[in-house]
Specification:
- Helices cover about 40% and strands about 15% of the residues.
- It has about 200 residues and is of the alpha/beta class.
- The strands form 2 sheets. It has a 5-stranded mixed sheet. Strands 1-2 form a two-stranded antiparallel ribbon.
- α7 links the parallel β5 (about 135-140) and β6.
- α1 packs across α2.
- The longest helix is centred in the last third of the chain and has 14 residues, at about 145-160.
- The relative contact order is 0.10.
- It binds zinc ion.
- Zinc ion (ZN) binds near residues 59, 67 and 70.
């Protein structure tokens, strides 16, 4: 049996994280059963997606307008920067509605075995943001993994030269866990109980 459009689409969807062949099949047949408007809207949004979204020049988060909605919001506390690994982590913390400061997206974690050194991350940009002397507090919201801890220690050491207080999120974060999988309540608690380092 040759590959038809259904097979091709199932193969495509199963390349997405967390979607196996079975789920991909469910999605594809759901689209077929739905109004053509769904498929058209999906394809329209996806085709211009990479062009529509850029990196915020300030924090590095994904955004349609630069600077992003958080960085350009006068109500956000610019004296507190929450450092996260990915733009997705930033979104998860935003959804928790606990944090009123601004963000800095590192774009990864230090992982010598995978060839990721501090120079590969947006640490210089973070330091530049500190030069304005308006930042008083840095909260490291990094996953409690080996790479997360290595990166946090490196940042703690680097940030010692600057007049900022550095915090890590309180326990409640499962060891070896991922911010992505923490429920909102736990995330809120870990912000309220942040620990100075
Ligand atoms: Zn931003």
């Amino acid at each position: 049996m040759g590959q038809n459009a259904i097979d091709r689409l199932i193969t495509l969807f199963s390349k997405l994280p967390g979607i196996g062949k079975k789920s991909a099949g469910r999605i594809v047949y759901h689209i077929l059963d739905s109004s053509p408007v769904l498929a058209e809207t999906l394809s329209k949004e996806l085709s211009g997606f990479h062009q529509a979204i850029k990196r915020c020049g300030v924090c590095g988060g994904f955004t349609e307008a630069d600077p992003c909605a958080v960085c350009s919001n006068p109500a956000r506390d610019k004296t507190i920067i929450c450092v996260v690994e990915t733009a997705q982590d930033m979104r998860i913390i935003e959804e928790g509605r606990e944090f009123a400061g601004v963000y800095h997206v590192l774009g990864g974690l230090i992982a010598p075995l995978e060839g990721v050194s501090p120079a590969n991350l947006s640490i210089d940009k973070l330091i530049n943001r500190l030069r304005s002397n308006t930042v008083k507090e840095i909260i490291l919201a990094l996953n409690p993994t080996v790479e997360g801890d290595t990166t946090a220690l490196y940042l703690q050491k680097t940030l010692k030269e600057y007049p900022v207080d550095v915090y890590r999120l309180a326990s409640g974060m499962p060891v070896g866990g991922n911010i992505e999988y923490i429920d909102k309540l736990t995330l809120s608690r870990s912000f309220r109980g942040k620990v100075k380092v």
